[in-house]
């Protein structure tokens, strides 16, 4: 008879387990000369093994072998190989639940690592292992955090090796991030973390940041970015001012910590406790501008970090506009102009940088007040910025495109900037409708649809109202019977329906003939079925439900002309025609 069929994946899994078992089985009789190589070989295999797809037990066996050879052998190379194996196990497919349970049952692992750190043996491998534990498995060993702090500080102070010092700082950075997460979940008390940070600042970080010749300043800045709003808000004012002053000084282009200092400022400027501090926000803006103006265009790493901070700064400006109107009044037009200018110049960089820049441009345009827009050179900035965003919507990597579309959402939320009054209005509608119809990426199309729904009045659409109406109907028909891709198809359909409702509410009597002309005449039942199930979903927000309800009223007032649209917005009927949609009757009109 025929042999039973074994799937390749099952065969491969069996072979991997067998290979691990075979190598682990060689350990007991292995000589000291060969054992380090065997442990290293297992470490390489571990990195390339999908443990989550295998039966439990294997990773625990490997971790146990690693810890057994970490102490007691007295052999330098064996201990180094055991540390490499331990680090490999804690790095793979993280966080691996089985590894977390094993670490919770074998907390002495942390103590062994700290012992190696005190003996200054295998410091590099030990610090790397501690980073993995803090990054992915902090909860099982949370009560070790004071000892880890002390060990990292001692290593930082005693070592003369810059690499080891930077790795010790990385341990403190991962610890800071883990402590902040533990505070958010209520696992640790704020008072304990405040004491920890004040101690770290005074004994380790401030001396490093005040030493202009220190090569490890960037690592110290990265640690400061993990403090978190709650702890920072609990500091006395002089500690807050000390941190802000040190970071602003380090953005000087002559200092090697410019990138890290700007990134940390980009974190701090979003903290609710200081984001409305006009002087700090302005100082941060000036620091970012200087960094972007003086950075070599080929230094993509620095540009990426500083442009990310610019995006955060622009987010803060928008939040302040929404929560504190006086902030907009007091913010300097000259500074806003410099931010727009440096953003437009930096937009010519690579796509990763541009994805941050377009985000910033959208926020800066949303932040602009009427008196600023009334100035001719700012209207020119608006036109250039919108042109930059429109070009970014249709070219480059997809993240840049959907960021650019969302930046246009922010732009059009500013009532000061009306497409019907700007030179850029025609290009805006042409580009966004084209993106909705032709782009292959659903997230880009969703944000483009959302952007078109931001116009608050019928006048904003001008002569493009019917074009947008037609685009929505054509796209709904084309997407109606398509397969769902990770929920994006349904999200696009919902956004299109919401835009349709928005257009309905704004329409004029003179729009009605063209609105009726572009209604589909074929396969209407299928269109109704697809749309009504989305527009009456239980997952709609109250605002979305209200918008759809108001649109239904408009349809009822225009009955029977808009009966088809009314049916699209009401609970679905019994299943009927599910044929594919025909769009030629719309598209060819």
Notable features of this structure?
32 helices; 589 residues; mainly alpha
Note down, in words, how this protein is organized:
The chain has 589 residues and is an all-alpha fold. It has helices spanning 8-25, 35-47, 58-68, 76-91, 97-105, 108-118, 123-136, 145-158, 162-184, 190-209, 217-224, 229-234, 237-250, 258-268, 278-294, 300-323, 325-330, 333-346, 351-367, 370-373, 376-393, 398-412, 425-438, 442-452, 458-461, 465-480, 488-506, 512-517, 524-535, 542-557, 563-568, 584-587. α4 runs parallel beside α7 and α14 runs parallel beside α16 (300-323). The longest helix is centred in the middle third of the chain and has 24 residues, at 300-323.
C-alpha geometry: globular
- Give a quick account of the main beta sheet: strands, pairing sense, barrel closure: none
- Global mean pLDDT: 92
Number of H- or I-type helical stretches: 32
Q: Ends: how far apart?
A: 64 Å
Structural class: mainly alpha
> Which segments are poorly predicted (pLDDT under 50) over 5 or more consecutive residues?
none
Rounded to an integer in angstroms, the radius of gyration calculated over CA atoms is 30 Å
Percentage of residues in strands? under 5%
**Oligomeric organization of the protein chains:** single chain
Give the number of DSSP strands. 0
| Amount of helix | 55-70%
């Amino acid at each position: 008879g025929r042999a039973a069929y074994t799937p390749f994946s099952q065969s491969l899994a069996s072979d991997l387990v067998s290979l691990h078992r075979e190598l682990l089985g060689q350990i007991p009789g292995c000589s000291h000369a060969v054992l380090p190589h065997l442990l290293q070989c297992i470490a390489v295999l571990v990195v390339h093994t999908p443990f989550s797809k295998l039966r439990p037990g294997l990773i625990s066996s490997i971790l146990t072998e690693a810890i057994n050879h970490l102490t007691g052998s007295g052999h330098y190379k064996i201990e180094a190989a055991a540390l490499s194996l331990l680090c490999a196990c804690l790095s793979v497919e993280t966080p691996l639940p089985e590894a977390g349970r094993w670490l919770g049952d074998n907390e002495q692992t942390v103590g062994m690592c700290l012992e190696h750190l005190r003996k200054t043996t295998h410091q590099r491998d030990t610090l790397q292992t501690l980073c993995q534990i803090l990054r992915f498995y902090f909860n099982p060993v949370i009560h070790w955090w004071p000892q880890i702090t002390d060990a990292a500080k001692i290593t930082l102070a005693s070592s003369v090796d810059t690499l080891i010092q930077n790795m010790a700082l990385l341990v403190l950075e991962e610890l800071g991030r883990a402590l902040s997460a533990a505070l958010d979940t209520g696992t640790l008390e704020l008072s304990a973390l405040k004491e920890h940070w004040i101690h770290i600042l005074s004994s380790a970080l401030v001396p490093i940041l005040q030493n202009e010749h220190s090569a490890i300043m960037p690592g110290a800045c990265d640690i400061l970015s993990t403090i978190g709003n709650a702890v920072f808000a609990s500091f006395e004012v002089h500690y807050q001012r000390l941190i802000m002053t040190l970071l602003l000084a380090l953005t000087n282009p002559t200092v090697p910590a410019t990138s890290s200092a700007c990134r940390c400022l980009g974190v701090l400027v979003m903290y609710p406790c200081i984001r409305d501090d006009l002087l700090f926000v302005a100082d941060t803006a000036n620091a970012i501008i200087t960094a972007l103006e003086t950075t070599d265009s080929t230094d993509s790493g620095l540009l990426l970090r500083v442009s990310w901070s610019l995006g955060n700064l622009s987010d803060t400006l928008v939040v302040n506009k929404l929560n504190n109107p006086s902030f907009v009044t007091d913010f300097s037009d000259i500074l806003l102009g410099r931010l727009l200018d440096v953003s437009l110049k930096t937009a010519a960089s690579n796509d990763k940088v541009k994805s941050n820049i377009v985000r910033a441009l959208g926020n800066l345009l949303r932040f602009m007040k009427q008196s600023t827009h009334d100035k001719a050179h700012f209207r020119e900035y608006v036109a250039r910025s919108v042109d930059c965003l429109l070009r970014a919507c249709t070219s480059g990597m997809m993240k840049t495109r959907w960021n650019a579309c969302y930046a246009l959402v922010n732009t059009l939320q500013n009532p000061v900037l009306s497409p019907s009054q700007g030179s850029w209005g025609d290009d805006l509608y042409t580009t966004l409708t084209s993106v909705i119809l032709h782009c292959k990426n659903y997230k880009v199309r969703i944000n483009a649809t959302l952007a078109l729904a931001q116009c608050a009045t019928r006048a904003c659409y001008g002569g493009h109202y019917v074009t947008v109406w037609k685009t929505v109907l054509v796209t709904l028909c084309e997407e109606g019977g398509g397969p769902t891709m990770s929920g994006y198809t349904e999200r696009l359909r919902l956004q299109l329906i919401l835009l349709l409702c928005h257009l309905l509410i704004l329409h004029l009597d003179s729009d009605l003939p063209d609105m009726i002309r572009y209604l589909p005449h074929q396969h209407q039942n299928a269109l109704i079925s697809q749309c009504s199930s989305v527009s009456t979903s239980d997952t709609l927000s109250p605002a979305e439900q209200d918008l759809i309800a108001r649109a239904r009223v408009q349809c009822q007032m225009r009955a029977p002309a808009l009966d088809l649209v009314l049916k699209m917005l009401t609970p679905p009927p019994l299943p009927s025609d599910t044929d594919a949609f025909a769009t030629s009757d719309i598209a060819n009109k």
